[in-house]
Each structure stands twice: as C-alpha cells, then as structure tokens.
Amino acid sequence: MAAYARQHRGSRPFTGHWRKRGAHAEAFGRSRGGFTSKIHARCDNQGRPLGFVLTGGQVSDYKAVNALLELPAPNPRAMLADRGYDSDSFRQDLLIHGILPVIPSRKGRSTPQNTDWRRYRDRNRIERMFNRLKQMRRIATRYDKTALSFMSFLNIAAARLWIRSFVNVT
C-alpha cells in the first residue's frame, strides 16, 4: 500500500516558496532582439579585462556599477564609461571614492556635465577589448544557459587576452 503525502496532518500542495530561478537569475532579459544579456567589464589602462558583471538585457547600465567597483582590482583614478552610466548619484559616488568620472552626458539631460574628451578617447581600448572578446563565437552568441558557465567562458577568453598581451608575436 502506498502512502500519500496528503494523508498526514498539515500536508498541503506545494506553493513554490523556494528560491526563485529563471531568466533573471541567469542574467537573461528581454530586449528588442529577444532574450539578451549585457556584459559589463572593468579594464586596466591597456584595455585588458580585470573582471565582469552580467545583467539582463533590459537592466539599466548603472545598476551594475556597484558590482563592478567591488571587484578585487586596483582602485582606478578615472572611470571611463558611456552615456548609459550617466547619473548624478553615480558621479557623486565616484567622486567620494576619489575616482574621476569621465562620462559624457545623455542627450536629454537638463544640466549637461563637462566631459574631458581627451581622456574619453582612451575608451576605444575598452571597445576594442569587447571586440576581441566577441570574436570568440561562444561569447558573441551566448550558447550557455547558466550565468555561471557563461561567466566561466568569459574568464577563459579574458585569460587568452592577457596571455596575448605578454607574448611577443613577431
């Protein structure tokens, strides 16, 4: 004879109160092209990656900033970022920590902030780093279901970039 779970006192159907899983936990988010995820990177002055943070595609850029700044890496003197990271609170946080924000203002901003365009030109190193990362097919189109496995391959790709910077290929 089989014992059923509902025979016992206080038993009731499962209500699903475990930790929530799904697209949000795996850094997937809806965007115009479907499910996407964003890679936020912290780089050194040579454009070599120091760490990554994954967010869903619809998440605002400056929501990942605190996680980027908490990565175990040397404190930067300046933070070069694109317009998606432009907010007054973020600029104030950077200045409190002694980091110079080099972020252009958004187009619709009521009080535009000054930007050091000479320093901002160095941001192309970061964009070239993303270009080199996305030349690897597995990074360009995310085949991994879990954020952990995708982050692992990001770190392997970052290690390849670091090795290339130390090896003389002449």
UniProtKB/TrEMBL annotation:
A GO term, aspect molecular function: transposase activity
GO BP annotations, alphabetical order: DNA transposition
Keyword tags: Membrane, Transmembrane, Transmembrane helix
Transmembrane domains' residue ranges: 146-163
InterPro entries xref list: Transposase_11 (IPR002559)
Region span, Disordered: 1-22
Domain Transposase IS4-like: 17-161
NCBIfam families associated with the record: transpos_IS5_3
PANTHER family, per database record: BLR1914 PROTEIN, PHP DOMAIN PROTEIN
Protein name per UniProt: IS5 family transposase
Classification lineage: Bacteria, Pseudomonadati, Pseudomonadota, Alphaproteobacteria, Acetobacterales
